Amino acid sequence: MRRGEMALPDFLGIGPGRTGTSWLHEVLVGHADLPCGVKETQFFNHSYEKGIDWYAAHFRHARGDRPIGEICPYFIHPRATELIKLHMPDCKLVVCFRDPVDHAYSNYKLLIAYAWARGSLDEVVETRPHIDRGNQYAANLRRWFDQFGRDQILVTWYEDLSSDPQGYLDRFCEFTGIPKFTLADHGTTSKKVNEFQGPPRSRRLAQNARHAMYWLRDRRAYSIVNALDRVGVWSLCFSGGERYPRLTAEQDARLRQRYLPEVEALEALLDCDLSRWKRPGEARAA
Question: I need a labelling partner for 77 at 20 to 30 A (CA). Which of 71, 84, 231, 234 fits?
Answer without folding.
Answer: 234
